[in-house]
Design a protein that fits this description.
The radius of gyration is 17 Å and the shape is rod-shaped. It has one domain (1-38). The protein contains 1 helix and no strands. The termini are far apart. With 38 residues, it is mostly helical.
Length: 38
């Protein structure tokens, strides 16, 4: 039971991690466009 619980937690962290990476990429693109305007 404990092992299954840990696996589920790891899976959730991986999903959150992938979402965070996508958000960071979007922010980087916005900042990059801002630099172009300058």
């Amino acid at each position: 039971m404990v092992v299954a619980f840990l696996i589920i937690l790891l899976g959730i962290q991986l999903l959150k991690g992938s979402k965070i990476k996508e958000e960071i990429k979007d922010e980087d693109l916005i900042e990059y466009e801002g630099d172009k305007d300058e």
